[in-house]
């Protein structure tokens, strides 16, 4: 490719092809979100320990995405700036996805049976690898949008990514419940992780083979020097320049901070909420093996129910992702995003109040999908108008801090609140997992209020 690489408007087919890699990436995220709870609980993790394990996500997000984003901005190779990170992250994450549900067996084969915490430690380490590698792929993927798509199509491009997130999540989440319902075949948890690993690798490989990037070896010297200068400065200087892009950038970041507290209150705890609150399975970590066996069938049903709810949640995201982009183009990102966030506030309150009604909880998850479609697209569209050419990866990496950072709050304080909110019923212990929805609703409401103050020029 020449240095005069010219961006052209994407067609619908171009957008669908561009988003395919993110569909595979979402398989990995979905298995991580839905099934990490039963795997780690089976290895002895209570709500607080589970929350601490989830710290892998925010810490790798805050460290890996800014670092990889900056590196990808100045990477010069015949494979492009972003593609080496997309494919490398996918391959390593896929290996860890395959190993994770077998953590207990790995500990056994390693002769660590005398250490009851060994399997849980291995599982925690593998979650860190999975999260780090997904972040390695995800940050450069977002940065690829301004690299290859004309500015006036950025909102639509992000909406197609929302579409891919929704479709990938629906297929990933629904596969096991559908197989059980249609064929009476229960897909094992390890098999679901293998499915995710294959989808991630194959979809990302396709994207890397079919998406053309601007030449990085023949760029004009002036642009090379600018990129070098932008990426040689320190982190805090980078952050200072990031906020100096516009006064509105600070508002967008604070909005994201509260949004993602709300999002992660649901994503981290929903499967446990489904198992222990909706279906009433007690805390299994403190029960003998024979007693745990009595609840195993109910736990499997609850896990399938959780997968169905996530499938519904993401199906709504899939169905309205592109319409949200079109509406945002017509009425503005801010107005559409406020309405979407408020719909999620209502959904969370419904789920928290009617916590033992599976139908109502499922309806609440469906309503939440509207907000999710907007969260996946419009904040990035709001930010993209302020990005300077050559700094796309750095800016998206820094912006991810305000997605990853809030998760620390959820993984620690919210997890601690739930761990201290003990219920005793029928001689068994359980927890008030519904508290996460009330906390999440309050934070999403704050986010909607902040969004109202953002100016769109």
CATH structural class: Mainly Alpha
Coarse shape: globular
Number of helices: 19
- Low-pLDDT stretches are 218-233
User: What is the number of domains?
Assistant: 1
Give the distance, in angstroms, between the N- and C-terminal Cα atoms.
35 Å
Number of E-state strands: 2
SS content category: mainly alpha
Largest sheet: 2 strands, antiparallel
CATH architecture label name: Up-down Bundle
Strand line-up in the sheet with most strands: 1-2
Radius of gyration: 22 Å
The helicity comes to over 70%
Q: Helix and strand succession?
A: HHHHHHHHHHHHHHHHHHEEH
Instruction: Tell me, rounded to a whole number, the average pLDDT.
Output: 86
CATH topology description: Growth Hormone, Chain: A
State which percent range the strand residues make up: under 5%
């Amino acid at each position: 490719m020449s240095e005069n690489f010219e961006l052209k408007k994407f067609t619908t087919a171009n957008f669908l092809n561009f988003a395919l890699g993110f569909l595979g990436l979402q398989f990995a995220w979905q298995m991580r979100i839905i099934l990490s709870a039963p795997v780690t609980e089976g290895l002895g993790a209570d709500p607080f320990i589970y929350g601490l394990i989830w710290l892998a996500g925010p810490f790798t997000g805050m460290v890996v995405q800014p670092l990889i984003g900056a590196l990808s901005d100045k990477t010069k190779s015949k494979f492009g700036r972003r593609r080496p990170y997309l494919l490398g992250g996918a391959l390593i994450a896929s290996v860890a996805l395959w190993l994770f549900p077998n953590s207990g067996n790995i500990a056994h084969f390693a002769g660590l049976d005398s250490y009851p915490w060994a399997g849980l430690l291995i599982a925690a380490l593998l979650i860190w690898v999975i999260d780090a590698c997904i972040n390695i792929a995800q940050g450069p993927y977002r940065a690829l949008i301004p690299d290859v798509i004309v500015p006036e199509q950025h909102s639509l491009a992000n909406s197609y990514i929302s579409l891919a997130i929704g479709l990938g999540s629906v297929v990933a989440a629904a596969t096991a419940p559908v197989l059980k319902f249609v064929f009476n075949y229960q897909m094992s948890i390890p098999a679901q992780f293998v499915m995710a690993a294959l989808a991630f690798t194959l979809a990302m490989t396709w994207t890397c083979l079919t998406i053309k990037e601007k030449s990085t070896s023949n760029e004009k010297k002036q642009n090379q020097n600018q990129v070098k200068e932008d990426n040689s400065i320190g982190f805090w200087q980078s952050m200072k320049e990031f906020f100096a892009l516009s006064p509105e950038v600070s508002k967008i970041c604070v909005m994201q901070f509260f949004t993602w507290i709300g999002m992660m209150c649901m994503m981290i705890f929903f499967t446990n909420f489904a198992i222990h609150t909706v279906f009433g399975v007690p805390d299994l970590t403190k029960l003998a093996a024979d007693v745990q066996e009595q609840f195993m069938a109910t736990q499997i049903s609850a896990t399938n129910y959780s997968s169905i709810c996530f499938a519904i949640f993401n199906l709504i995201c899939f169905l309205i992702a592109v319409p949200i982009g079109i509406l945002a183009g017509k009425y503005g990102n801010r107005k559409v995003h406020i309405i979407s966030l408020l719909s999620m506030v209502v959904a969370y309150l419904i789920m928290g109040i009617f916590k033992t009604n599976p139908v109502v909880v499922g309806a609440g998850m469906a309503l939440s999908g509207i907000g999710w479609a907007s969260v996946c697209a419009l904040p990035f569209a709001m930010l993209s108008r302020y990005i300077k050419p050559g700094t796309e990866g750095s800016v998206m990496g820094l912006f991810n801090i305000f997605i990853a950072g809030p998760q620390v709050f959820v993984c620690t304080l919210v997890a601690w609140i739930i761990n201290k909110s003990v219920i005793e019923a029928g001689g068994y212990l359980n927890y008030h997992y519904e508290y996460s929805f009330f906390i999440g609703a309050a934070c999403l409401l704050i986010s909607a209020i902040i969004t109202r103050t953002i100016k769109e020029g």
